[in-house]
Amino acid sequence: MDQAMKQTLVNTAIKAAEHAYAPYSHFRVGAALLDDKGTVHTGCNVENASYGLCNCAERTALFKAISEGVTPKTGITALAVVTLDAPGFCSPCGACRQVIHELATNAVILLADRNGTWQETTPDKLLPGAFVL
Ligand code: THU
User: Fold this and answer.
1) Atom 2, ligand 1: which residue's CA is nearest?
2) How far is 131 from 30, CA to CA, in rounded Å?
3) Taken in order 60, 75, 41, 124, is the CA torsion positive or negative?
4) Coil, strand or helix: which one is 54?
5) How far, in Å, from the CA of 97 to the mean position of ligand 1?
6) 28: helix, coil or strand?
7) pTM of the model
8) What's the confidence (pLDDT) of residue 93?
9) Conformation bin of residue 91: beta by default, left when phi > 0, alpha when psi is -120 to 50
10) How far is Cα 28 from Cα 109, in angstroms, rounded to an integer?
11) Residues known to be catalytic
12) What is the 15 CA–ligand 1 centroid distance (Å)?
């Protein structure tokens, strides 16, 4: 996967974050993933007054993609995540790390900042010793 595609994914994640529904945390997160057919799927965090029902951007994007027919584990090439509301890279929460590990097993993970620069990691590095059933 070339640098231009990675930059496109990061830029798409930044745009997706603008759709965040985050009236409680005011912490807008966006995600964009590339599937093995070349389609990009986006997600944002969607909060709720019942706080435990908040859904992270990464899981929104992953669940959207899988529900639209993307193959779990092998069908996701890369996943970018970014927040608009902090200066640094967005680090996925523990729940998202577990979901990323299972659904985007082979993906390159791009942790981006709001200026569009990123660092790369992998699901295994994000969650060593992930739970598997
Ligand atoms: N959030 C994400 O969308 N992704 C993460 O990896 C970390 C946290 C969201 C959840 C909540 O809406 C807000 O950021 C503050 O925790």
Assistant:
1) 56
2) 25
3) positive
4) coil
5) 12
6) coil
7) 0.97
8) 98
9) beta
10) 19
11) 58
12) 16
- Please tell me what DSSP assigns to residue 31: E
Pairing of the two strands 76-83 and 108-112? parallel
Q: Look-up: residue for tokens 């019942």? A: 50
Structure confidence at residue 4 as a pLDDT band (50, 70, 90): very high
For residues 28 and 10, give the distance between their C-alpha atoms in angstroms, rounded to a whole number: 15
Q: Which is nearest to 102 in space by CA: 68, 84, 75? A: 75
CA distances (Å), 78 to each of 23, 53, 61, in order?
Answer: 29, 26, 12
Measured in Å, residue 42 CA sits from the centre of ligand 1 at 15
Task: Output the six-digit token pair for 56.
Answer: 């992270």
Measured between alpha carbons, how far is 128 from 29 in angstroms, rounded to an integer? 24
For residue 30, give the H/E element and its range: strand 29-35
- Specify which residues 30 forms β-bridges with: 44, 82
